[in-house]
Model the fold of this input.
Amino acid sequence: MIYLDHAATTPLDPAAAEAMAPWLDGRPANPSAVHAAGRAARAAVEAAREQVAGALGVAPLDVLFTSGGTEADNAAVLGLARAAREAGRGAHVVTTAIEHHAVLDAARWLAEREGFALTVVPPEPDGVVDAERVLAAVRHDTVLASVMVANNELGTLQPIGAIGAGLAERGVPLHVDAVQAFGRAELALERWGVAAAALSAHKFGGPTGAGVLVLRRDVACLPTSLGGGQERGLRSGTLHTAGIVGCGAAAALAAQRMATDVGRLAARRDRLAVRLLAIDGVTRNGHATARLPHNLHVAVDGVDGEALLLALDAAGVAVSTGSACQSGAAGPSHVLAAVGAPLDGVGHVRLTVGRTTTTGEVDAAATAFEGAVARLRAQGGGFW
Ligand code: PLP
Done:
């Protein structure tokens, strides 16, 4: 299989698997326990916390482990907004129309169920959100802005530096979803003045079911899970030692390798883009340069996106489409809808390369893509 779906999940890096192995051998591993086995697990978790903190340039005490990106995003959006309202600072939240549902649905929950006001800022047609529009949405009672660093579908990079600076002047805390960006784009959490950030280990060579919430200690946040009081009382539940150790190892590697990985990923992606964009009726979605180095997102005239995905899958090439269902929920992608992409009679496909993708694989995938588009068009496009 030629795997071009690294934005969905990355293969587990062998080094992360090796770091995890001792914690999957059946030994008891509860980092909250006081006995020797518990202390060993605690030491492993704290070492992973330092690895993540070092990779991000933040203090280890600001790093909280979660079950993934979704939990980290939920905890930040719900926890920060509720704490600020409880303190009487207001009840207005700003986010963007291209956020992952982990942010967007949490923000909508606050608006629809808890009486918050919500402003959802639309992107420009190129998939980049204008910083001025975000800042213009801020009101006297705004308690939180949540803007992703890089979009998971289009790969577009958002102007977080400008947004962070403007929000700091206005005294509004910023949460960033950095799930797609970590290891592939600069993350200057401190310089950007970020209050909270979400990461997911399986997007950077770590295991699924492990993630990180970076949360500055001086920012008030209410917990979204209650119980044993782990992770500064914000994320109760026995820690998943193996997953956390894998997350730490993968984070350290991703940070070390980023400088070389970015050029390599962009070279593979650009090689693929040259071939695909040369096909008649195939155009690029999203900004040409302000995008993650591994992401190519294309619109294909006269072809159904799902049919193209399935044809490529049958040819041994794994990609994803934003034009149809996500986790089985039917309906067009909210991101493509927000940028005004044509959805009728046009298929949209995301191809994301990884650090192990070879030029041979890129070339073979491009050939399969050309063949699949030609065959589907000859059959009327595969619409149904
Ligand atoms: N945020 C973004 C931008 C993502 O791409 C994803 C995963 O697709 C998530 C959040 C959710 O992360 P997880 O799968 O770890 O819950």
User: Anything to note?
Assistant: The radius of gyration is 21 Å. The chain has eleven helices and 13 strands. Residues 68-70, 73, 100, 102, 148, 152, 177, 179-180, 200, 211 surround pyridoxal-5'-phosphate (CB under 6 Å). The domain at 2-8+259-378 is CATH 3.90.1150.10 (Aspartate Aminotransferase, domain 1).
